[in-house]
Amino acid sequence: MRHLIQAGGEQLAALRLYSLVLVGLLAGGVCLPVCVSTQEKTGSPAQQKIASDLLDAVRRDRGEPPVSPRPAEVDVDEKGRALVDLRADVTDALLAQIKVMGGEVISAFPEYLAVRARMPLKKIEALAERAEVKSIRLADKAEVKRLPAACVQES
Questions:
Q1: DSSP-H helix ranges across 62-100
Q2: CA-to-CA distance for 84 and 136, rounded, in angstroms?
């Protein structure tokens, strides 16, 4: 770098620009994780276990404004229940509590720490307060994509 400084004005200007870009990248790279982790740590311990799109749906259901600028659309059934995936220590007590809260257990896989259930939006936070529950998020939707008939070979 020393030879660049001694070489002339153009190279010195390029070095300054390079330094500014590098500082900007480093500052952005350091700031971004800090900002994201600060956002994630807001709310109660139970709310921290709930995915932000689901938490926004819970807030809207209570008549509160969503936190996200573009809240996700959440499909709820006629009983006000959303299909959710829980990462949890699957116990008989947890499965019974889901039913007591008005939910329906669709599937439970203790070996994978996984439960899929339909839960009333009004009960999501109460469920997240349980120690066995590690996280709750909207269930992934299955997608079926069909090939055009011209692409399918008949055998």
A1: 92-100
A2: 7
Residue 142: count of CB within 10 angstroms of its CB: 5
Reported as a single tens digit per residue, the pLDDT across 137-154 is 999 888 888 877 777 676
CA 7 distance to own-chain centroid: 51
- Candidates 152, 92, 72, 80; CA nearest to 121 is 80
pTM value is: 0.66
For 47-68, the pLDDT digits (tens) are: 999 999 999 999 998 988 887 7
Please, what's the b/e burial string for 30-40 (b: 16 or more CB within 10 A of its CB; e: otherwise)? Answer: eeeeeeeeeee
Q: Are 72 and 84 in contact (CB under 8 A)?
A: no
Contact 125, 100 (CB under 8 A): no
Report residue 25 as tokens: 């990248």
Q: Give the sign of the dihedral formed by CA 89, CA 93, CA 96, CA 102.
A: negative
The label of the residue with tokens 């807030």 reads: 59
